[in-house]
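ligand=zinc ion
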Amino acid sequence: MNRADRLRVAVQKSGRLAQPSQDLLAECGLRFRQSRDKLFCFGETLPIDLLLVRDDDIPRMLAEGSCDLGIVGRNVLAEQDDGTAPVVELRALGFGACRLAIALPQDLPWNGAASLAGLRIATSYPRLLGRYLQSAGVAATVVVLNGSVEIAPRLGSADAVCDLVSSGATLAANQLREVAVVAPSEAVLAGSAAAPLDARTELREMLLRRIE
Ligand code: ATP
Ligand code: ZN
């Protein structure tokens, strides 16, 4: 079948956004039949298929055109935005709310962003943190970690963290206090800035209308 005849939507396979993303599509009237490998779901009610992937892969898949729409945290979309990929946020979806925030150990003082000067800050979001530091005119060392960011200060590998926070419970459990928000986030529907000029254009419009 021609790729142009069916719309492909990428959602997180497992994790915080997985279930709410599938629930949203179900509310839009979409039903799927899962393939044996459980990575591809064939749309039975409409020519809209689902790809179940790691959230971090979604911006690249949209940029290269291997899928047409994706549901991903704005934080992931923004972090991977190097200014070249024509991938944009089409709709905020109202779930997966969180914020990328700076947190400090209790004994470090906070008097605004200048307090970060000279510190080592652990994060999985070097681009967003880098932009924040640059716009504040602060020179700090960004320590890139792919997980367990919040224990870095206790391990001595960083002085502060810049991590995703929702309730704040994880920070509190690690004796960290939130001092500044770098970027508020929630799940968004993302897609290429230019809609494909084929049958998918209409499918995309229909899905956007149903999401409204
Ligand atoms: P994957 O295996 O797909 O890479 P992950 O571990 O990167 O999963 P999750 O922890 O499931 O991802 O988070 C997915 C998204 O959920 C985040 O990118 C963010 O937008 C949102 N989110 C909401 N609250 C939180 C939170 N407290 N911590 C982390 N992410 C949160
Ligand atoms: Zn991820």
